[in-house]
Specification:
eight-stranded mixed β-sheet, Aminopeptidase, 6 helices, globular, alpha+beta, about 30% strand
């Protein structure tokens, strides 16, 4: 399958069965799972996640979607989650970058492209990120991307960070 979205250094594509060992390695690295809420990071669970989401259609109304984040050379550097919630009129994004690729601007680069695509396809929807209070790098990243901390939700132990539609940001 061709890339879904391409940036200067990266591309987004559907997950593939061969992604499982790399995902297993970084999802079981403390630096990644420390702020995530994954219920099961076993190889079997990751293989099942890949199988469930390998045919996802980007920006569709499917409630939960997952994609691979890769370098232009094809190395898997992480994965992105996309949750479409009609009831709340929002899209929630989540991203994990493997420790070996962190602090290179990859998350910012791919999320910038994803956000632009979401805004073009769903211009009236809020874009949301749920971020652990201790995850300062992610909080800073999403603020750099134009999100604001709407509230802290004790029930999920996360900040609810929101990027409202362009018309609401401009006071229209």
């Amino acid at each position: 399958m061709p890339p879904i979205l391409t940036t200067q250094r990266l591309f987004l594509r559907n997950l593939r069965p061969e992604d499982a060992p790399v995902m297993f390695a970084y999802r079981n690295d403390r630096r990644c799972y420390e702020f995530q809420r994954w219920e099961d990071t076993s190889l079997n669970a990751i293989q099942a996640l890949i199988e469930q989401h390998r045919q996802d259609a980007f920006l569709s109304r499917k409630p939960e979607q997952h994609y691979a984040v890769c370098t232009r050379e094809g190395s898997l550097v992480g994965d992105m989650a996309y949750f479409h919630t009609e009831k709340d009129n929002c899209v929630t994004l989540g991203i994990t970058i493997a420790p070996a690729y962190q602090r290179r601007g990859y998350a910012c680069e791919i999320l910038s492209a994803v956000i632009a695509a979401v805004q073009a396809r769903h211009p009236a929807m809020d874009i949301v990120a749920l971020i652990d209070r201790e995850n300062e790098p992610s909080l800073s990243l999403f603020e750099k991307l134009g999100f604001f901390r709407e509230c802290y939700a004790e029930s999920i132990s996360s900040y609810v960070c929101v990027k409202p539609p362009k018309d609401r940001r401009n006071g229209i």
